[in-house]
Design a protein that fits this description.
Number of strands: 8
Oligomer: single chain
Helix content: 25-40%
Largest sheet: 5 strands, antiparallel
Length: about 140
């Protein structure tokens, strides 16, 4: 009779342990899965009427490295790319400042620092300021 109790108890422990192992495996897998989206961090420059500000050019400086970054064409009028998922590995688990300088008629019309970082999948905007900026 004692032998049957042990077998039932062992089976219950085995079932419970198997269930917990499966839950832990699924949880671990879900936490480390990245979405297929491609993340772009940009700032949007508008005038007071909500119209996009079209700059002649802009510069990006990775402040901690004192390194200029390659600037890309705006994705839409007035939408200026700061970083994208191509920089995810360089920014992973970091808080970095990218200094943005916008030029119109060879004069600086807008400057700002943008705080960015990345998790194990995508770049992230870490700043508190709105991504849409109104300039004159």
């Amino acid at each position: 009779m004692n032998l049957k109790i042990i077998n039932v108890t062992e089976k219950r422990i085995f079932i419970i342990m198997s269930f917990l192992a499966a839950v832990m495996f699924i949880t671990f897998q879900c936490d480390n899965m990245c979405t297929k989206q491609y993340v772009i961090i940009n700032i949007i420059l508008q005038n007071r009427d909500g119209q996009p500000v079209i700059l002649d050019s802009c510069q990006l400086l990775w402040v901690s490295k004192n390194q200029k970054l390659v600037t890309r064409e705006p994705i839409w009028p007035g939408h200026y790319v700061i970083v994208d998922d191509m920089m995810q590995q360089e920014l992973e688990n970091k808080r970095e400042t990218i200094h943005f300088t916008g030029y119109l008629n060879d004069e600086i019309v807008y400057e700002t620092d943008v705080l960015v970082g990345a998790d194990n999948c995508h770049v992230k905007y870490l700043g508190k300021d709105p991504i849409i900026r109104v300039i004159d």
